[in-house]
Amino acid sequence: MYLIYLYRLPKELIKISALAFFFVATLAGCLSTSDNSNSPGNVPLEPDPMTLAEQICTESSYGAPFEGNTLEATIAATVENTPRNFEGPLWFDGAQSLLYCDRPPSAAGEYWIGEFDGANKGVFVSDIPCGGLALNPDNKSVLIAMGRGAETPQIGKLDLNTKELTVHSLGVSAEAPFAGPNDLTVSSEGIAYVSEPANNTVYKILPDGTTTVAATGISKANGVTLSLDETRLYVSGKTTATIPHEAQVWSMPIDENGDLGPASMVEDGITALGNNALADGMAVDCAGNVYSAINQSNAVLVINSQDEVIGRITVSDAENEVLPENEKVSNVAFGGPDNRTLYMVTLTGRIYSVDLAVPGLPY
Predict the structure, then answer these.
(1) Whole-number mean pLDDT of the chain?
(2) How many other CB atoms sit within 10 Å of the CB of residue 307?
(3) What percent of the chain has pLDDT over 90?
(4) In whole angstroms, how large is the CA radius of gyration of the chain?
(5) Any idea what the CATH number is for the domain that residue 337 is in?
(6) Which CA distances in Å does 194 have to 52, 84, 186, 206?
(7) Which pLDDT belongs to residue 22?
(8) Three-state DSSP string of 291-331
(9) I need a surface site. Which of 40, 55, 293, 353 has the fewest CB within 10 A?
């Protein structure tokens, strides 16, 4: 109708109308551009948010985490009656509580993410087969290693507010899915590194979920953590899949693209643990020390930034209860109001804690 109407107008009037329309449209476009709050040319960009390490590590330097080279952690919580495996602890600052993977001793059974507020344990989210937790840079969501007990092995993403679970990655491709992701860590750029013991492999996952193989040949690749400056990735495991074996921790450089270089082994003090030890989950403090749980030895080793073992934290029971023959410390994380409490979880369903002189990161 409008085209027919214009067609019937005198040519001069059509030209005038066209010029008027062009003028109004141009003016509207200019006004719209000048008022666009999303325009990078007119609105200064906000500075990048502080990284997790920058938020926690506020002092210019830090000393030793504790005096001497040995320290005892005391029991904070335990499971009554029913045997459970605790794994993958993460300090949830928003709730001032420790989240952890609460699993049955075998693959079959109930799985959930537990929550410990320093006095009581509860269920944060149920029905999630969880092996490891890692906080995303947005501080609003966590990535979850969902291997043992999962119908479809994957890396899940859990919104800490809504508790909605979505799939972040199913593996490299449909032809190369995950076999059983075990543990993970996330950089300040949102790049995740995931261990898979069954394949002796470490994966790299970009923020959009794109997944590639980052390293192979890491025997029983287990715990993973980044160095404080994120220039190295530490991966724990053991020499062989069969007994006898020795605990091992590897260190790999990370380039500007997040890719891993050749692995070197942290040998000082690790092999001295003897047969059947397994290096498990890890955490890092603000002095750059790495804390590696040593499964089968009731202890956590402290490794400095020069890859030297400088200390050992063992577990004890303040109430003089009889401990299981082997506590099997599985993973560690820093938390508490000042991030100076080291939490240690075990495969016997216990949580230990010890206060240190140096704060650390929450998983």
Answers:
(1) 83
(2) 18
(3) 59
(4) 26
(5) 2.120.10.30
(6) 19, 24, 9, 11
(7) 37
(8) EEEEECCCEEEEECCCCCEEEEEEEECCCCCCCCCCCCEEE
(9) 40
